[in-house]
Design brief:
Helices cover 31% and strands 24% of the residues. The protein has 16 helices and 27 strands. Helix 4 crosses helix 10, helix 13 crosses helix 14 and helix 15 packs across helix 16.
Length: 508
């Protein structure tokens, strides 16, 4: 039985508070001092967000340790503190509750789910995972559902939204929010009366248990290629993290063309369906694929199902994304007619193969492709309909898996007529060192140049372009800043392109 008191505010101006023992009743802990009967009005794992009567959870991160901020929690009026090691109590008031757990981060999902009363039980929840395609597939599913008249929440790289409106939420991670922020967002979506939520589920979100406590209805697996080894250490660790999603979903949707598909099928605890292009045994198959510079069409085949599908986004990867979205929406009760109708007008998410046409007759495409597999998928598809030269501007992120840099250099030189190697987000690494790593993979006789300044590199590509050419600017997509050392600078590929094109002679 929950005990509530009135909070000072939530996003609607009011809310509820809860007794601490109602929040911690599902975890193992030791009471160090105080009482579990104290009331809490909020939960925080960051000292900046501590409020009067907060429960402060001391989490040890890579750079900071929450235990070092206990004094701030006391000064800001926290009513309870969770620690994972012994701390000095002489500076903590005797009436302030302190409890100890083995791993504070691992119990955060349980605390958050209890505090927000398991909001994901009140809507259909779809989780999309894979090395590539999470954002595009999530966007496509959300677009189809909205077209059918449903109110949809979306969580991922492009932000947290209800339909197309951003909602107020904290973001400390680029894709899958921390467990507390995630449950808070779910709670706001529930109060907005969403019927469905589509969420990108990252490997780190799974590995760090951020999605524990989420009541998934559908899990979608797109693909698995080498990436994030700087986070997971080994490819198997990376795969095992992804597999966790399908051990908690009653229904799974799996790309049968991926070489790891059977691992995901075996991990699935419920029913599943498969999709693919090359695997003739997939439940949903795309055949007779036709791609142009502006669209792709195919015949959808399945049990008692044959439909002609057209999507105004080019590329074979769009076919895979569409198949995943179709399977998801069919499972969620939409008719194939409604799905077809929505796909015929769907738009690319921002920064995903976003195309800007110039007055001089060439095209500039901006895409987030920042892995070898993603870059090859995009370039190989663009190559098929490029009338003139295909150029690419790209770099690789610093403090990330360096093994993929030479691979991306080789891939780009194999598909492109000219390359401009530049900076991405170098972070703490020397940009020139990153570019040198890329150069090691560039094939002999390839045409390329190095311009470390990303703005100048983009401007140079536009200067070189002629009628019929296509420029791909890869790696950052929708991002609005560039991280150089400890400095975060405003930077957006799309805005740089638009500014340069507007100032060119043919635009005046």
């Amino acid at each position: 039985m929950y005990t509530y008191i009135i909070k000072r505010r939530d996003f609607e101006g009011r809310g509820v508070s809860m007794k601490l023992n109602d929040v911690i009743n599902n975890i193992d802990y030791e009471l160090i001092q105080g009482t579990e009967d104290t009331y809490i009005e909020s939960i925080s794992y960051h000292s900046k967000h501590i409020e009067q009567d907060s429960l402060f959870v001391c989490i040890k991160g890579q750079r900071t340790d929450g235990h070092d901020y206990i004094a701030q929690a006391v000064m800001k009026g926290a009513s309870a503190i969770i620690v994972e090691r012994k701390v000095a109590l002489e500076f903590i008031p005797e009436d302030l509750t302190v409890i100890q757990v083995d791993k504070a981060r691992s119990i955060l999902p349980s605390l958050a789910s209890q505090f927000y009363q398991y909001p994901s039980r009140d809507f259909r929840l779809v989780g999309v995972t894979g090395t590539n395609g999470k954002t595009s597939v999530s966007h496509m599913i959300s677009s189809i559902l909205q077209h059918a008249g449903r109110k949809v929440g979306s969580i991922g790289t492009l932000g947290n939204k209800v339909n197309e409106m951003d909602i107020e939420s904290r973001r400390t991670t680029p894709t899958t929010p921390e467990a507390l922020d995630l449950q808070d967002t779910f709670s706001k979506m529930k109060q907005s009366s969403v019927s469905d939520v589509v969420m990108e589920v990252s490997s780190m979100g799974l590995a760090l248990d951020r999605v524990n406590g989420c009541d998934f209805d559908i899990g979608v697996f797109m693909n698995l290629t080498q990436d994030h080894l700087d986070d997971h250490g080994t490819f198997d660790n990376y795969k095992q993290a992804k597999l966790k999603l399908f051990k908690s979903c009653p229904f799974s949707i799996i790309n049968a063309d991926d070489e790891h598909a059977h691992d995901f099928i075996d991990a699935s605890i419920g029913k599943y369906t498969t999709f693919g292009i090359t695997n003739g045994e997939a439940d949903l198959r795309a055949v007779s694929i036709t791609s142009t510079a502006s669209s792709v069409s195919f015949t959808l085949e399945g049990e008692n199902l044959t439909e002609e599908i057209s999507v105004p986004i080019p590329g074979e990867f769009t076919v895979y994304n569409s198949l995943a979205a179709i399977a998801s929406c069919l499972q969620m009760g939409l008719s194939i007619e409604k799905i077809k109708e929505a796909l015929a007008v769907v738009k690319s998410p921002e920064g995903r193969l976003q195309t800007i046409e110039s007055d001089q007759g060439f095209s500039v495409m901006i895409d987030y492709a920042n892995t070898p597999d993603a870059l090859e998928n995009v370039l190989s598809n663009i190559r098929a309909y490029t009338a003139g030269k295909l150029m690419v501007v790209f770099g690789c992120g610093g403090d990330k898996d360096p093994k993929k840099r030479a691979k991306m250099g080789q891939i780009a030189s194999r598909w492109c007529d000219h390359m401009i190697l530049t900076s991405d987000n170098p972070r703490s690494e020397n940009p020139s060192t990153i570019i040198q790593d890329i150069e090691e993979g560039v094939l002999l006789e390839s045409s390329y140049e190095v311009i470390e300044d990303r703005r100048k590199a983009i401007e140079r590509s536009i200067l070189l372009a002629e009628q019929g050419d296509i420029i791909l600017i890869a790696g950052k997509g929708f991002e609005t800043d560039q991280i150089i050392g400890e400095t975060v600078l405003p930077f957006n590929d799309v805005e740089v392109v638009k500014s340069r094109l507007a100032s060119s002679p043919a635009s005046s």
